[in-house]
UniProtKB/TrEMBL annotation:
Domain Class II aldolase/adducin N-terminal: 20-202
Pfam families, alphabetized: Aldolase_II
InterPro entries named in the record: Aldolase-II_Adducin_sf, Aldolase_II/adducin_N, Aldolase_II/adducin_N_sf
Cited NCBIfam families: PRK07490.1
Name the record gives this protein: Ribulose-5-phosphate 4-epimerase/fuculose-1-phosphate aldolase
Source species: Neorhizobium alkalisoli
Listed transmembrane segments: none
Gene3D superfamilies: Class II aldolase/adducin N-terminal domain (3.40.225.10)
GO function term, MF aspect, one: actin filament binding
Cellular-component GO terms for this entry: cytoskeleton
Family: Belongs to the aldolase class II family.
Length: 253
């Protein structure tokens, strides 16, 4: 007797929208040149406890990812990597640990964008407050200087998750960056400004002239003033999705 496999349940409306938003984030990252071949990974929690999450399938180019392509995984499922549709090993190592241990990380974006990664390769990878974008990260970024190689082992993922703590942005020395947020829109806006801030830092360093670093008081004031623009993150992301809808709406399939 042949036994037919039980089909996966269709995603509910909330999960469907989350899939669309995360797929849009992949497409936008590729357009911005933040991706790295078929590496790097984004995830978004779909359960109340955060342990069930969406993540990109193994070795799929960001520019081609659709909402329906995203894998739904359980961070506590020890058999995940034994399955034929297993995700990239580093995606599982990093994102399963984040979704097990960091409740505020409903969305996690891990990237190696050019300027932030160049900054991560410096002995001091911190972002100095030299303009309003760089000041956004004043005293608001974790810095991880304990790179342990490509994060394919569970222990490396656990260490990265522990480094996040209560932060939303992590500069990963000798590696790249990770941002976490309650929503895809907020995570996208964060990585956008993080890469802009890193670009400003690298360009300023390249002049060879001394940096004009704000006082701690002005830097803190400027960072706090970003809170008044919190709603702009959602408008930013919606505008970017409008561009995708006009030029290539296939991300939502």
């Amino acid at each position: 007797m042949n036994v037919m496999a039980t089909p996966s349940p269709a995603p509910d409306a909330d999960e469907r929208q989350l899939r669309i938003d995360l797929a849009a984030c992949f497409r936008l990252a590729a357009r911005a040149g933040w991706h790295e071949a078929v590496a790097n990974h984004f995830s978004a929690a779909i359960s109340a406890d955060g342990k069930r999450f969406l993540v990109n399938p193994r070795w799929r180019h960001f520019s081609l990812i659709r909402a329906s392509d995203l894998l739904a995984l359980d961070a506590d499922d020890k058999e995940t990597m034994a399955r034929p549709d297993a995700p990239d090993p580093s995606a599982w190592s990093i994102h399963s640990a984040i979704h097990r241990h960091v409740p505020h990380a409903r969305v996690a974006l891990h990237l190696h964008p050019p300027y932030a990664t160049a900054l991560a390769g410096l002995k001091d990878p911190s972002i100095k407050p030299i303009d309003q974008n760089t000041a956004r990260y004043f005293n608001r970024m974790a810095i991880d200087l304990s790179f342990g190689g490509i994060a394919t082992e569970e222990s490396e993922g656990e260490r990265i998750a522990a480094t996040i703590g209560n932060h939303s942005t992590v500069m990963m020395g000798n590696h790249g960056v990770t941002v976490v947020a309650p929503t895809v829109a907020e995570a996208f806006d964060n990585i956008y400004y993080l890469e802009r801030a890193a670009q400003t830092m690298i360009l300023a360093y390249s002049t060879g002239q001394p940096l004009s670093v704000m006082s701690d008081e002005i830097a803190e004031q400027t960072a706090a003033e970003w809170d008044a623009y919190a709603g702009a993150a959602f408008a930013h992301f919606e505008e970017m999705k409008r561009i995708l809808d006009r030029e290539d709406p296939s991300y939502a399939e």
